[in-house]
């Protein structure tokens, strides 16, 4: 019954030409081939469908049933690969078609081959393997078509996979492997030439699904590549070598080759990483080579972390921010706390903390309780990343942090007063103290903390002056930003510093630079201000203390020019951060200082600052006068109006006249006035 | 001033200057209100300098008293100016100077209209349009170079400094 059916089926279906019918045929043909026992009819059955291979079909223009070439191709492929029994006829047919020059035919044959490998058994493939390998290898070497190459690689992998499934085929696999090695190693040794990559791809394809082969290949190739890397001098050679190495590494991890037990492998990996780190200057190489190496590392992290650190040393010199941030996050989960900090060091260990960190990093640090307890217990070296961590931690809203806050703050104070180390870091540390003061909840805690802080600072003002004064400046800033009720004594402390001789006075006046500055990046993270922040703190500070500062200036006679300059500069530094309306109100007392002070401005930067201040004030003055004149222009008497009009015209010339009057002005100030004379926008 | 570029009008006609206004008794009486009149407006603009020549607009007859009109009660001022030649390229600059001077020296309640005397310039419509448009005037005055040139016209003292 079986045989009869098959015979009749073949005769019924033979010579079918209608595409719609063919689609139908292809859909149930695989079932027939699979379910029924074919015995002698396998060949005939195969020939039935093989006649249509490869499909060469152009759909007619008016096609009601819309049969596409794609449908037919896929259907046929399924048919040809449906059963193992077809193997002896199918493979030779495909080989024959592969030898043709037509690219489409080649592609189709390769795809069909892949489909076949999935369904056929290793045994049936075995006789043909070497022939196939021979041909495919030649195709890769001689071929110029990228698609064909891709398909070949796919086919090789499928082939080996199928062979692997069958225990009895292991010797075939080995033969294949050694043949591949002998063929491709010469190519790998010439990284400047085109065949390096195809060679590598072939090897990878062959060992992809076979652990035995992978092991052999990796053992042989990775040391070879490392050697080569250190020997070759041209960058392209190095680059290619590295990329191929990375691919093999990845392949190795698929089969967990680099497990703790196998110590030699770790050594090798370490060498590779050292080689990579020396290459890190060229970022383009890194971009391509690092991701596979990185994946390898990730798999390894569970096993040993010193490798991780070496790898990260590579990244330290690179500028690829994305890679850095990705790496960091994934590692955080695995690694211990001090590792986290070490990681941070490596990633961000440069002199300046970048203004924004990747969001995920911030979130991680903020939410990490381990970090908090770690900080409160240990004595840490200061560095940019540490400071950054502290900032993140201090900004957290929740309770557990409260008790630990002061401990953390102690660290920061210590860092800002340290005698060695980077000034930038110390500056950031000092500003972190301000941050801390800003974010602390009000109450006894804060008061007592400030008392103790005061006691700490006073003696220091004798030792490392600049650091202590700077810290004082930041403390004052933190306090005025939150409108702390007892800030007066701190402010007076800073003010008195201005009158001290030498370095203290100068540093103190420099503090005024940032005192009122709107430094969002320093004091708030992600632009969110804390509840304690007082919006109008600048105006309040200015209004309450400008009188004092002016009096101080006036009391210092001409004999103490240096100290006077300190006060003058301190006042001037405040100007840019205040709205003009506020300055206008104090114009009367500020102008005389301006005039007196300008005579004795010593250094050039002081002059530039003064120039800026003068510009503001001169502009205001002009504005004031012109406003008043405008009223007079509308007077009822013509003579009065005439005089006013003349005065108004004269004031267009005002700045030039000032120029003539103030002969002793420095060049900076002259430039400023020249600028102001063009700003006559009083319409 | 460089004379490398050809001046538009190398040899213009020069006119006589008017005499200064004579004050009357009523001018000094604090109780009487002196209305704005044409002569007052003329006084405001007659000393504006021409951008090219060291002569005032009055001397070149670019502005005349008869062409200045004032309506004090309606706060309206209208000035017609006559460029020296029909293709004068400085026409809009002169117009702008006049406008600016009036805007500065008149109380802000006045609406100032500056136009070219009809029939005396080739592109009078375009120039009139420019001068009437507040935004264009403001934009022009934001140009520092232009502003410098105009200030030199309005303030003879600045002429000597460059």
From TrEMBL, chain A:
Keywords: Cytoplasm, Cytoskeleton, DNA damage, DNA repair, Nucleus, Repeat. Signal peptide: none annotated. Residues 364-640 form the MMS19 C-terminal domain. Its main location: cytoplasm. InterPro entries: ARM-like, ARM-type_fold, MMS19, MMS19_C, MMS19_N. One of its GO terms (cellular component) is spindle. It is found in: Cytoplasm, Cytoskeleton, Spindle; Nucleus. PANTHER family: DNA REPAIR/TRANSCRIPTION PROTEIN MET18/MMS19, MMS19 NUCLEOTIDE EXCISION REPAIR PROTEIN HOMOLOG. This is MMS19 nucleotide excision repair protein.
UniProtKB/TrEMBL annotation, chain B:
GO terms for biological process: chromosome segregation; protein maturation. Keywords: Chromosome partition. This is Mitotic spindle-associated MMXD complex subunit MIP18. Pfam families: FeS_assembly_P. The keyword Kinase does not apply. Belongs to the MIP18 family. GO terms for cellular component: cytosolic [4Fe-4S] assembly targeting complex. Gene3D superfamilies: 6.10.250.1280, Fe-S cluster assembly (FSCA). Residues 40-115 form the MIP18 family-like domain.
